[in-house]
Structure formats: C-alpha cells, structure tokens
Amino acid sequence: MSHIVWSIAGSDSGGGAGIQADLKATQSFNVHCCTVITALTAQNSLGVEALNPVSTTVIESQLTALSQDMPATVIKIGMLANVQQIQLIAEHLTHYKATWVTPPIVVYDPVAIATSGDALTEEDTVDALKTHLLPLVDVITPNTHETQLLTGVYLIGPEAVKEAAARLREFGAKSVIIKGGHWDYPKGYCIDYGVEADTEYWLGNEKIQTPHSHGTGCSLSSVMASCIAKGYPFKDAFILGKAYINAGLKAAIRYGEGVGPVAHTGFPVTLNDYPQVVEAGSWLADELEFTLPEEFNFAAGFASIDDLIGLYAVVDSANWVEKCLAMGVDTVQLRIKDSEQANLEAEIQTAIALGQKYGAKVFINDYWQLAIKHGAYGIHLGQEDIDKANLAAIQEAGLRLGISTHGFYEMLRAHNYRPSYLAFGAIYPTTTKDMTGQIQGLEKLTHFVPLMEPVYPTVAIGGIDLSRAQEVAATGVSSIAVVRAITEAQDPQQAVLELKQAMTQHD
Ligand SMILES: Cc1ncc(COP(=O)(O)OP(=O)(O)O)c(N)n1
Ligand SMILES: Cc1nc(C(=O)O)sc1CCOP(=O)(O)O
Ligand SMILES: [Mg+2]
Predict the structure, then answer these.
(1) Which of 65, 138, 224, 504 is deepest in the core (most CB within 10 A)?
(2) Structural domain of residue 88, as residue ranges?
C-alpha cells in the first residue's frame, strides 16, 4: 500500500534540515512525501542569513493542489514563519479534519531556533501557535528549548518535564513527546518523555558526541510521520525516529565550516542505536528518581534454552500437550485462560510431567507460581504479566522465561529483562485471541528478527498456518508458534509434519 505524507516546512538552502531533511528521512522509510514550502531560508553550516517567508497565497496554492489529488495520511508541520502562516495552516487543517474521509494525523515539530542558535520564526508566533495550531495537533515533538518557549516551564528535572507536557496537552496537543537531546540529564544521556492518552513512558540512550546534528528535529519528526502513515503506534514511530537519528549522528560529517547535517542511513538495523525503555529499577530510572513499585521483583538474565525451540504448539489442555509431544512437536505451551478452571493445578502438573517424560520443552503460560512449584521447563508471560510476576523468583528457580511483544516499544521493554526467548505477534490476524490494533505483518517481523535474533531465540505467533509458515521462516525467526494450525487441522499429525517441513524449506 502506498502512503503519502505532507511536509509543511521551510526550505534549508544548506540541505541539512527543513524540507530537504524531510524528503531524505521519508525516503528512507519508503514513504512518498509531498511538500508545502513556507519559507526559503538562506542558510549554510554557519547559520541562518535570511528567513524569506513565502506568502500565504503561495502556501495556499500548494495546499490546494495537493488536497485535490494527493491527500495525506499524515501531515508533518515544521517551520511556520509568522502568525499569518499559522492561521492559514490551522484553517486548512480544520477543514481537512472535518471533511476528509480519513482525517489526517498531524505531527508538529515546532521549529523556533536553528542548531546554530538563530531564530526561525517571528517573535509573536507563540500565542498564535497555542491558540490556533496546538488544538489540531495529534503529536507534538518539541525539544527542551521549544518546550520552555511554548510552556514557560523551565525543565529542571523529570517532574518539570511532565508538567510541561501536561501544559502542552492543555493547549490541545493530544500526545506529547519532549525530546531530551539538549537536556544532558543525567550527564551524558539523552532522555525523552512521551505521554499519550493515559500512558506515559521514558526512553533513554547515551548521547552521541558529535557537533554535526543539524536537521535532527526535522528528520526525527519525518520518520515519525512516515511510520505513523504506515500504521505504527506513536511510541514505536518515535522509537524508530530515535534509532534513525542515533545512527545518523554516528555517521554525520561536516560539509561546510560549521555544523554538519545528521546523516540519513536508512532503516535502523543496529540494536545499539535503539533507545532503552527506562523502567523502575534500572540505573537510568534511579538517576531520574523514579519511585519503585511496592513489590519490586525485577530480574534480568534468564536461563537459556538448550536446543532449538523449533515448532511451538500453544494448547489449552494437558491432553493436547501429550498429543503434540507424541507427534514430535519440539516445544509446547500450556495456555489455560480460565483461571477458575477446576483442575487447573492438576493440568499444569500433568503437562510439566509430560515434558519431563518426553524430554521436551513445556512452557506454562501465566501461572508462574504453579510453574515454579512443579518445576516447569519455562514460563511464558505477556507484557502486563511482567509487572505482577516475581521475576526474581522465576530466575532463582532456573526456569526459562519467554515474553510476548507487540511492536518495537514492547520489544525493547522485554529486552530489559534479557529473557530466554522473545515472541513477536500477532503476525497475521487470528481468531484465537483478540489482537485488534496489534497485527504486525511480515514487514515488521523482518525488522524485529535481525535486531533480536543475535541476542535471543525469536518466536513468531499469530495467524500462522501452513500456507504462511515458509514466508515467516524466511525472515530468519527461529521458531513458529501456532494454535489452530495444529488443534483445528483435519489431520494434526500431518499438519505437524508439513509445518516442520515448511520451516526448513525457506531460502
Ligand atoms: C509463544 C507465545 N507468544 C505469545 C503469547 C501471548 O502471551 P500473552 O501476551 O501473555 O497472552 P496470553 O497468551 O496470556 O493471552 C503466547 N501465549 N505464546
Ligand atoms: C495466543 C496468542 N498470542 C498472540 C500474540 O500475538 O501475542 S497471537 C495468539 C493466538 C495465536 O493463535 P493462532 O495460531 O490460532 O492464530
Ligand atoms: Mg499470558
């Protein structure tokens, strides 16, 4: 499917920021970018020599041409040079949001000051931005200077960052990401804060030491716009923007005498370039003075899996565990979702004993206490389960731990625990479980696997059947987990044989 992003921004004659950066960044994500140019800045690597705002008539003609034929999934807004431009853009966005069949998602990266320190907007624009533009913005991505300029909150620590984000939401922005690139707190780190609906999160990574950072804000928001256009959640889009910028800063070089532009190095493929999800208990969280939950049982580094996970059946009874093991399935998970089931403990105990009898890997889903009590091979937990389970007890008991992930944020969060395997789902739509809004597709799986497979065995789950097993295995994922492809097969034994064959027959 083709995706269109519009970039409403200024041209940077130096080629490092503005429209020029936006085109390079969107291209890296195979997204088509249309442009509405708001100013023809005269810049080089040493600074901004002139702003040259474009007239509202010329801006309007660009908007009209595009809206007639190439409506955008996402509109990314950068530099708006004056109050008239802000009002014009706000009027048009209001109209698009009210009349387009699919209202555009608006990403706003406030552009007030260039890397060189020069102003990029007239002085009286702040009130107009708050009154006219922010109520139309779905996600705003200011840096610390821009946050202070828009909110008046001086960012002296995490609480102030949260307060500033709350103000931006009061002005109407639905989601807020405050970038910590200029913050240097803790020293040498770059900490970002995000808040959307009722969730908030912090990301962090070591600061990349380079003077050549021109165009980072424009590029990051353009990556976000591209990923959002492709259906990524905001959090994941931001993570990809961060990883893209980190990789680009490492590769950045000088072109003039001053500050060089961030490099554009394609989809980020190096785990080291991705930020950490900052969670209570980590060193970064301690530095940020996060309060620890009452029962804090963080643990990282779980027992490894002895051999290949192979074909992984997820079933709901000890009876099915036995059938699968007898049919030669490599790994089996007992997944009973009714915690009131009368024979729950007996089923778990039997499944674990069967694993021992067959010398096979049997994982228990959810019931980590019973899994420890009866000596299971491993436990499988979802993202919500991680908060409640005693991870330290699981680790001490030597049980393997598998964690479910649905997207980049959850993948990086799970990585904090260094589990025994990572599962990616749901790859395709499934009727076994409600995975609405969490279907990853093969394209994302092809990004997840090379990032994580060098660190852990990886598992793909969700909607996988014989017709799809080969293309899934071709991503390099070490294991395929299925429910219906075995339990609803006319001939389960034949299904097991064919699934195993398909897993080895890919290129
Ligand atoms: C191999 C594998 N991957 C993912 C899941 C899903 O686990 P979870 O997110 O805990 O959801 P429930 O299975 O408990 O509904 C899984 N079970 N196995
Ligand atoms: C149990 C489960 N977890 C998923 C996840 O994505 O976390 S998808 C899923 C259901 C998989 O069933 P089937 O093979 O029948 O599609
Ligand atoms: Mg679970």
Answers:
(1) 224
(2) 4-287
4-12 and 32-44 as β-strands: parallel, antiparallel, unpaired?
Answer: parallel
Q: What average pLDDT is seen over the chain?
A: 94
Is the domain of 37 the same as that of 117? yes
Nearest CA to ligand 1 atom 12: 382
Please tell me the distance between residue 404's alpha carbon and the centre of ligand 2 in angstroms: 10
pLDDT one-digit tens code per residue, 332-357: 999 999 999 999 999 999 999 999 99
Strand, coil or helix: 497: helix
When pLDDT is cut at 50, 70 and 90, the band that residue 288 belongs to is confident
Rounded to two decimals, the pTM is 0.95
> Using an 8 Å Cβ cutoff, are 242 and 274 in contact?
yes
Edge to edge, what strands does the sheet with 105-108 contain?
Answer: 47-50, 32-44, 4-12, 74-77, 105-108, 139-140, 175-178, 189-196, 199-206, 276-277
Instruction: Decide if pLDDT at 83 tops 80.
Output: yes
Query: Closest Cα to atom 7, ligand 1: which residue?
Result: 382
> Is 4 annotated as contributing to ligand binding?
no
Gap between the Cα atoms of 209 and 213, Å rounded: 10
Q: Give the β-pairing of 74-77 and 175-178.
A: unpaired
**Over residues 223-227, mean pLDDT:** 98
| Structural domain includes residue 270 | yes
Peptide bond into 392 cis (omega under 30): no
- How many angstroms is it from 420 CA to the middle of ligand 1? 15
Q: What is the domain count for the chain? A: 2
Mean pLDDT of 9-37: 97
